[in-house]
Design goal:
The chain is mainly beta. The chain has helices at about 160-165, 340-350, 380, and strands at about 5-10, 15-20, 40-45, 60-65, 65-75, 80-85, 90, 100-110, 115-120, 130, 130-135, 145, 150-155, 170, 180-185, 185-190, 200-205, 210-215, 215-220, 225-230, 235-240, 245-250, 250-255, 275, 280, 285, 300-305, 305-310, 315-320, 335-340, 355-360. It folds into 3 domains: about 5-120, Immunoglobulin-like; about 130-230, Immunoglobulin-like (Sandwich); about 235-370, L,D-transpeptidase catalytic domain-like (Beta Barrel).
Length: about 400
């Protein structure tokens, strides 16, 4: 036992307990310690603890004294907590990093006398861990369209989806309601009720470190990413009328004639519905779907200034061979054929997540064909949340 002056400090080995010992008798009625009464600070996990579960809380409790301050330092994520109104208890407010070492320091005071208790422990290093392997959008310096979803992919299937979804946060500068939907066991997507307001920053964060993802799997580290929303670029087109109009922040930029799918087969019918622009490339090789060389209708064509808007092979692209049909007839294999000048212009201004609304065909785009998530009502979209 170590005693300092009339009110001493004892740190009991392996327990994380600091004990203030009375060196003289007192009345006990004015906050002073009575004879044989001790003031203690207990830290859990105790000093020297090993393989502590990452989702176990850190707790500090004071008896016959009050807490002045509690700090946690370690190799993993930063840990903060909340002190009770009576300053007798403190509890961490998040999970811990797996396989890390932490030191808790608790400072207390009784009758003007300070004392410090510490506890150093290590957390469990699990055999299997969960981490984020991709967040889209993720291109450096990229501005995205107002329809852009946030797509998160994990390194393994998530057993406890609710636990993981609870630590996912989306914070736009201009608030709008949104919801997560699990489209696969390892992928979850965030979509808003209405389009993002343009020209703002959106912060995505995942406090994943230490989160129990089910079946003994724990999250490894937090993720924090800022997404830039650009101008509201909206394209509306009528397939039967062979034209589309492009607006930016509500102002018309250009009306573009096109030639859409000829409709002879389902795959040659351009889809109606709300699409998002997904990517662009120049050149792109186009190959007939479901056909091989020698089959009737097989084709293999290289096109320039291609902007994808579905996973089933629909693009806007330059088609100088069909300029005479653009604005008048649908003769393509499902893409929107544009003049070279218009295709390049659209290619140059596009942002991933820009909205392309098409009407006028009898083939509706599926909600999970590419990024056509706006085909779902928001009420139906929310049903895919693990927290709904």
């Amino acid at each position: 036992m170590a005693v300092r002056g009339r009110l001493g400090l004892v740190v009991a080995g392996g327990t994380g307990v600091a004990v203030l010992v009375a060196g003289c008798s007192g009345s006990g009625g004015s906050g002073e310690l009575a004879s044989n009464e001790t003031a203690t600070v207990t830290i859990t996990p105790g000093n020297g603890s090993a393989s502590v579960k990452p989702d176990s809380p850190i707790e500090v409790k004071a008896s016959n004294t009050t807490l002045e301050n509690v700090t946690v330092r370690g190799e993993g994520v930063s840990i903060t907590g909340k002190l009770s109104a009576d300053r007798r208890t403190w509890r961490s407010d998040r999970t811990l990093t797996p396989g890390a070492s932490y030191t808790v320091t608790a400072q207390s005071r009784h009758d003007g006398k300070p004392a410090t208790a510490t506890s150093t422990f290590t957390t469990l290093k699990p055999a299997r861990t969960l981490s984020v392997i991709d967040v889209t959008p993720n291109l450096k310096g990229e501005k995205v369209g107002v329809g852009m979803p946030i797509m998160v992919r994990f390194n393994r299937p998530v057993a406890d989806r609710a636990a993981v979804e609870r630590v996912l946060r989306v914070t736009p500068e201009k608030p709008v309601e949104g919801a997560w939907r699990w489209i696969a066991s390892d992928q979850v997507i965030y979509r808003t009720r209405t389009y993002w307001a343009p020209h703002q920053k959106v912060r995505f964060s995942a406090r994943l470190a230490g989160v129990p993802a089910g079946k003994g799997v724990y999250g490894t580290k937090d993720i924090d990413q800022t997404i830039s929303i650009g101008a509201a670029q909206i394209t509306t087109g009528n397939i039967s009328k062979h034209r589309m109009t492009v607006t930016r922040d509500g102002k018309k930029l250009r009306t573009v004639p096109f030639s859409a799918g000829n409709g002879q087969t389902r795959e040659y019918t351009t889809t109606s519905g709300v699409h998002l622009l997904m990517e662009k490339a120049s050149p792109v090789k186009m190959i007939s779907p479901g056909r091989k060389k020698g089959d009737l209708g097989y084709y293999e064509t290289v096109v320039n200034y291609a902007v994808r808007f579905s996973s089933s092979g629909e693009y806007t692209h330059a088609a100088p061979w069909s300029v005479g049909s653009q604005g008048y007839a649908n003769v393509s294999h499902g893409c929107l054929n544009l003049s070279t000048a218009n295709a390049k212009w659209y290619y140059d201004i596009m942002q991933r997540g820009d909205v392309l609304k098409l009407t006028g065909s009898d083939r509706e785009v599926e909600w999970n064909n590419g990024w056509s998530f706006w085909q779902e009502s928001f009420a139906d979209w929310k049903k895919g949340s693990a927290l709904s």
